[in-house]
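INFO batch 0412 | record 1 of 1 | parsing
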Amino acid sequence: MFRKEHMKKIVLLNTLFTPLIGFAQLQTVFKQKVDSIYDKNKDAVGIIVHVEAPKHNISWSYAKDVADTSTNQALEDQQPVLIASNTKPYVAAAILRLVEKGELSIDQPIANLLSKKTRHLFESDGYNLAVITIKNLLSHTSGIQDYVDEAYFEFVNQHPKYKWKKDEQIKRSIDIGNPQPVGEKFSYADINYLLLTEIIEQKTQQPFYAAIRNLLRYKELNLTKTWFINVEQYPENPCLSPISTQASTTGTRMPLILHGICTEAVG
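INFO prediction complete | emitting tokens
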């Protein structure tokens, strides 16, 4: 086993000598590394990797194996894929934009920020929403039971085309757990970000996906190939290839924030 100081030296040496290696050689190294990772993880459908290193004049993409297991269609390096829980930074950034605009405070309790229906459901189960803040939701310290557990995944696997509704996920969260102390423990839970999307909708009076698109200024950031699957229209000429199997199935069956974002760059 390497000691930490040895690992630091290796990383440092790699960084120092990277400029001395030709780009063509680096491509070969990158490709071999991805291939070796895939060979050790045969359950993976496919892998897409993008390396962006402007200081070294590197912009490289590579895809390994298939996009669709039913047709064995090759996976392409510009194929749109579902970014799953990487959706959460989009939601968090949208909330912080509302904070910047003075429409929310990071320490604001969520009691009056949710819909009456959602507030009633949680309060009737013993949750004190007056002490749970936006910061608690963002940092997964709300003490709210998540709706995702082993039974949830089992259902997902057995019903791959089932589309979960927000109300169903909230009800499941309430049914399978009890309120926990607020702010005392980190507990990763999709329910936190589900509630943040509702807060976005309540504040902007827009569907969360439209509000996030506007708040984050997709056009200005050139996010022309990024969209919420199943609720936004497939962009014109979004990528070189059709959406991959991973995005078309997982996006339908596991909408972590109602639905996932598909984007040309994953990372």
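INFO post-check: The chain is about 40% helix and 10% strand.
INFO record closed
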